[in-house]
């Protein structure tokens, strides 16, 4: 069982990111294009052959829009799964190494109340400062979002988050007993990370309990006559299961890594996680950053609505 978990993770990741998960692309042939009923039929003649071929097709437009929407949802689902996986990976490490949670404040709030009752005022100050640091991270992202919407928002925070992770690992390497400052930096970083995840995916990728609640409601509404036996929305169900499954895989991966590479867990793992988050932010913001890897002959090409193909800019 010890060696099966990494293979399970790799297999799940391969399925989630494989081209098979994309909707099948439909080939569009001009021989099957229908003339929209809203346009008059044009008689064949040498003068209007070109005009017939240029008439818009409502069917083609709707098909393209549906394909675009499906691909955009699949992209969001992949990001949600990956970020939930990262949250699960980090949660176990944070509890094991620092005895707190940087990704969610529920546990920290309970421990703070326990410390107040037991008159452990140093612990009260610790958990209160962690919660305040998380709130500051969320607030900073929100303020930047309102002020710099179109100016590489996630790219702006990529170096900040990565630097906080690297510095937290560095301080721990210098003094293994150091806990307070790394905790503040990690909580601040996850305030930004969770905000980015919510902004990009449209769901709370760090709240597994909420995802389970939504899943239960969908099942009950489907089988309940009182609720009208509502049809389960496919996109909502897939997003919910992606968050739950991604978190479980991340937590399992973290436990396996802690048992098989304990030194990495003590020194270096948060640097790796910070580098991954920084790279993810840059990838999400690739269009605003200019997509320098998408240049053709020294000129930028436009990323289309599907964020898949790169077409030459229109002149």
TrEMBL record:
**Leader sequence residues:** 1-20
**Classification via InterPro entries:** DUF1275
TM regions (residue ranges): 124-141, 153-172, 192-215, 236-255, 267-284
Name of the featured protein:
DUF1275 domain protein
For this UniProt record, the keywords arranged alphabetically read as follows: Membrane, Signal, Transmembrane, Transmembrane helix
Give the species this sequence originates from.
Skeletonema marinoi
Taxonomic lineage of the native organism: Eukaryota, Sar, Stramenopiles, Ochrophyta, Bacillariophyta
